[in-house]
Amino acid sequence: MKKITNHFLPAILLLLTACGSQTPKNDPEQGKDTATAQNKTVVNPAASVPAKRDQVRKEPVAQYRVKTDNPLNDWYFSVELYETPNTFQYLLKLQYEEIRGADTLKLPNFGRMPEPVIQKGPEKYSCIIGFKDKDDQFREYKKVYMKDGHLKVTALKHYGVSTYQP
To answer: Is the CB of residue 104 less than 8 Å from the CB of residue 120?
Structure first.
């Protein structure tokens, strides 16, 4: 019996050390008080911007206008954005010569006051509506243009906002 134990003793010790509990790797979250982890607050930058405006401007906040080629009339292709009582919603007024239209433009709430911008589009009678991001870069959103005698509004990109808790 002593002979069998001497032969298997190193194997048993090796097996026990291999199967033994290992020390956990350093985890910065491990060891934190659970009460502290439960008291984390979710920071939502979008909540810092009011949903309603105190004052609604009467003049357009952004506009684009170009004269049409009609030699007899003083006609334009024009797009104007007007504030509404809702902070992230605008009234979009469109015109091409005597064709008029209106639409609603809703900008995403990125946690700062919206800055709508209208830039020249790729076609003669077109423009791109967008907004400035936090880095003051233009983000295109919608395109307004003429096609087959109709004013068209097309979404170029879609934006979304979400909140997460780390």
So the answer is: no
